[in-house]
Amino acid sequence: MGDKVLLIGSGGREHAIAWKLSESQDVSRILVAPGNAGTATSGKISNVDVSVSDHEKLADWCKDNDISLVVIGPEVPLAEGVVDVLTGRNIACFGPTKAAAEIEASKAFSKDFMDRHNIPTARWKSFTEAKSACDHINSAPYKALVVKASGLAAGKGVIVAKDKEEACAAVNDILQVKRFGAAGETVVVEELLEGEEFSVLAFSDGTNIAPMLPAQDHKRLQDGDQGPNTGGMGAYCPCPQVDADILSQIHKEVLQQTVDGMKQDGKPYVGVLYAGLMLTQDGAKVLEFNCRFGDPETQVILPLLKSDLYHTMKACVNGELSSAMPCFHDDKSAVAIVLASGGYPASYKKGYEITGLDTVQKELNQVVFHAGTAMKDGKVVTSGGRVLANVAMAADLPTAAAEALKGAETIKFEGAFFRRDIAKRGCKYLNRCVDEEEGPKKMKLDR
Length: 447
Description:
The protein is α+β, with helices and mostly antiparallel strands. It contains 14 helices and 23 strands.
């Protein structure tokens, strides 16, 4: 009889985590709360109706149901301290404590932490008054055009302004109009960094790290990085623009330095640490930290994981990461394309039937990770803005991108739309390398 895992969350990230956990021979069941149509009934995976907001009741439920490990997908429960309560009841929990999760929950804390521990990042200042912030925007010795709500704003609290006027308007929107409520009581104004944006995630047991492959997300709604920001319209992994030397710098100067700094500050970091980075002319610099797996990056990283995810998670919780280091395919690429509801990221209708899923999974041999889906009268229907992501894997990035596009074209629902240029930047870089007769340096994850 294997172990039972409780996975908290309802998105594509959680479906991907559940899917990978289900491959472990040591796991008998993965219960997802609240889950979606993709996690409703799929082999070892099923949804469960348990409240995750009342942490003490959740702990009682875990005890009553013999849960061996709790995995938290989204950031809000982490920031609210669910790990503190569960571990206080001797329930193994994969994710950082409330104090450690502040690295995402407060951008002002995160930026101050980076400065104190010499982690490369953009120049910045925080403000609680709109006038002071706007005075800084107009007088800063750098392009102070990135405005962030300091608290958690569901990934929508960052405004990259095109000029000072727009940056000041963003400040007023956050501090005076209260667009993000309590999350916007403080704003962080940052230097605009230019270059290639990507992310590197790492497992951590509080002392040691195990980095994952670099990935690139696509935040803008439309092809060519046009339109409003979204939660992410697709991703690919690995990111060939990031060579072995850059990765080595990130592993030592960003990821390990952060885990070391959190430990020094009395906030040991256990779980997944996500570093959002910009590759500038001066090297890689941190844009933000997240205290959990990214979405949609998880949907392309985990399919490339060869080793047992459950073993690595348990090793992190037990402070023994070196005993279960993750291992990734270094001869494959993965591309995920997100299909969204018409009207997203603004208002949209729900309840449309989704077709083509079996064809994509059985005939095209792709993986589909559900996000905004539900079951209705035995059919899978839309229930969110980002509905699902289909993931194609291949021996090279251009092939994976082309196959993913075929999959996205096969899935149908009323108003569905998707970007057709996911991974185009990576493919262009590879073509340029071929033209110059030099490929990117082979990626090797430092241990």
